[in-house]
Design brief:
Length: about 325
Amino acid sequence: MPDLTPVSGFPTRRMRRLRRTSALRRLVAETTLSVDDLVAPLFVADGLDVPRPVASLPGVSQHTVDSLVSEVRRLAGLGVPGVILFPLPRNQDKDATGSAALSPDGITRRAIEAVRTAVGDDLVIMADCCLDEFTDHGHCGIVDPDTGDVDNDATVQLYADLAVVQASAGAHVIAPSGMMDGQVAAIRGALDRAGHADAAVLAYAAKYASALYGPFREAADVTIAGGGDRKGYQQDFRNGREALAEVALDVAEGADMVMVKPALTYLDVVADVRALVDVPVAAYHVSGEYAMVKAAAERGWIDGPAVALEQVTAVKRAGADFVLTYFAGELAEALHG
Ligand code: PBG
């Protein structure tokens, strides 16, 4: 009998063997990041003549409607399957209830219509459904003058109206991001009654009150009055189980897809949500996550594109089906080689 005892250190050498060449690594990779996994967040501002770069988000601009359309066309050409739009009013149009969001000839409608006309169904148009960009106090809804808190139910009613405006302008997906209780059910009901049963709802289901939204607030020109915060309606970063309850409620209310936000500080939540539900799970790699990579790369401290790829792939590995990220365009270019 020949001696069949492996002499090469089986099984301890298996890992090394399979890491030896790039082709072997590709063959056994558990996670693949594809252009199909990316959604680009885009800002479009009313009253701009030329796009305005956002200092804390290098490579990101507030667009004019025209430059927004060109950017969406460029992303569609790169194969990016989705964009999420953040329309921004002129400063003087902000008020206590965010009424400019709903205005029939306002930036919400004009931006979504222009994009839909340009790309049709070739790319998924998502609309962030919230009011903080439109309120003069910077909260995500109507503030109750007696308590100083956001009035949940009055706000939900406005979200329902906004969702109908967004869907009728051509948004394929409505993405409520205000973390009001009952917002998904109210939006689903309003969409159905208005003849938009086909418009899908992507719920920002587990959205944390995060310090990582800083650059977004610059991009969207949002300041919360009196140095306030959103801790009364967004989630506490110490809580994970609570996220699962939020997600379960949103799915029960009719969410077609659910989102965890931010992404990297909440990969445990992404993994748990993936295990809990069968609907598609998204994660939002937010402005602060992007800005940190850009800032360190600018100083030559890290390899920016490599870190971007590593981070966004990690979000997929944790269980996200797709990732909203300001790196979408750059990653799409890189993935095309
Ligand atoms: C609310 C909204 C926010 C973000 C997306 N939708 C800001 C907030 O909740 O304060 C943040 C996105 C990011 O930081 O990239 N409309």
